[in-house]
Design goal:
By secondary structure, this protein is mainly α. 44% of the residues lie in helices and 0% in strands.
Length: 148
C-alpha cells in the first residue's frame, strides 16, 4: 500500500489524523505512520527537528550533500558567508565542526570522504540561539515593543 493509497482523500485524511479536539495525538499518529511508510519504501525521513549534522546522519535522515562546496570553501583563502534566516547556516557550522573534529565515519557516502586528510583540530562552537536578549529595563525586547 503506497502513501497515496493509505491516506485517501483529503477529508478522509483529516478525519483520521485530526479528529475534533485531538490535534497533538493526530500529529503523533501521522508522524508514526509516515515513518512506517518511509521504512517500508526504503525512503529516508526528512530531518525535521534535527539541528546538527551528526543527528541527521546518525538518524539516517535525508541530507543533500553539500560537502563538495565545503571542500572548496576550506581549500580557499577567505570567505564571507551571508545567508538569510532559516537557510542552513547552523547546519553548515555543525558540518564544519564534524569535519575539523576528524569524524570521518559520518561522511562515509559523501563527496568529501576521501578528499581531505582527516585530522583532529580544536573546535570552538558558540551557540547564540540560547542567549536571552533583554533591553535596558531587563525586559525581553518583544515585550518592550508591545508596550510602546
Amino acid at each position: 500500500m503506497g502513501y497515496g493509497e493509505r491516506l485517501g482523500t483529503k477529508k478522509e485524511w483529516l478525519n483520521e489524523y485530526w479528529p475534533r479536539g485531538s490535534l497533538p495525538l493526530g500529529i503523533i499518529k501521522f508522524a508514526s505512520d509516515l515513518r512506517q511508510i518511509c521504512v517500508r519504501n526504503k525512503m529516508k525521513r526528512l530531518p525535521i527537528g534535527f539541528q546538527t549534522f551528526s543527528e541527521i546522519i546518525n538518524e539516517n535522515c535525508l541530507y543533500v550533500d553539500k560537502t563538495e562546496d565545503i571542500y572548496n570553501l576550506i581549500s580557499g583563502k577567505y570567505y564571507f558567508i551571508s545567508r538569510p534566516r532559516r537557510f542552513g547556516k547552523s547546519l553548515l557550522v555543525s558540518t564544519l565542526k564534524e569535519i575539523f573534529s576528524g569524524n570521518k565515519e559520518l561522511f562515509k557516502e559523501l563527496y568529501i570522504y576521501d578528499k581531505i586528510k582527516w585530522e583532529k583540530y580544536p573546535v570552538i562552537h558558540i551557540d547564540f540561539s540560547s542567549i536571552v536578549y533583554k533591553d535596558r529595563n531587563n525586559r525581553h525586547p518583544s515585550k518592550s515593543l508591545k508596550s510602546s
